[in-house]
Design a protein that fits this description.
191 residues, mainly beta, ten-stranded parallel beta sheet, 10 strands, 2% helix
């Protein structure tokens, strides 16, 4: 087996800021309580991997493959997901903090964001069709020429989406969230 292929291993409490993660293809691996902050993950392939309670803030994702990746309880500030290898790009987030990250122009159909903080995140020109933002805080998130068709925003809070600048056909909103669609009109909505 090639040393450039690592499968079904668990990495626990590793600090990849001190000793970088070797460039390789990682399949069915688990990363638990690992520190990747400011790490260079360029060109690394992650397939069917889990990241739990990791810090990936400001990591470099140039040509990084993220195929069917599950992130839970991770701190992921300032990540530029648009720099990833977009072939097979698929991930989901649960209880993560993604503030100041960018998904610019990405195809992210059926992406699940659950219980996640997405402050000041850029979704400009991305395709989020059939995705969900369950119990997510989208304060300051940018939606500009974004495809939001059939996206579930029913339990999301603090979003501001201009229906004239985004495709929102069949998107789902709660009555309480309708203010996020009317924000540009600077009107007062009372219960």
């Amino acid at each position: 087996m090639s040393e450039n292929y690592i499968a079904e291993q668990t990495f626990d409490r590793e600090d990849f800021t001190i000793r970088p993660l070797p460039k390789a293809e990682y399949e069915n691996c688990k990363f638990i309580n690992c520190n990747f902050s400011n790490a260079d993950l360029s060109g690394i392939k992650f397939l069917d991997c889990e990241f739990s309670s990791c810090n990936l803030s400001m990591a470099s994702l140039t040509k990084t493959a993220l195929n069917d990746i599950y992130f839970s309880d991770c701190k992921m500030l300032g990540l530029r997901f648009e720099n990833c290898n977009d072939f097979g790009l698929a991930f989901s987030f649960n209880h993560c903090k993604l503030d100041h990250s960018s998904f610019y122009k990405l195809k992210l159909k059926k992406t699940a964001f659950q219980n996640t903080q997405l402050h000041e995140v850029d979704f400009s020109e991305s395709d989020l069709s059939n995705s969900s933002f369950e119990n997510c805080d989208l304060s300051g998130a940018t939606f500009d020429r974004t495809i939001l068709e059939k996206v579930d925003f029913r339990s999301a809070i603090n979003f501001s989406i201009d229906p004239d600048k985004n495709r929102i056909k069949k998107a789902k909103f709660s009555q309480a969230g309708l203010g996020g669609l009317l924000h540009k009109y600077d009107i007062v909505i009372s219960q």
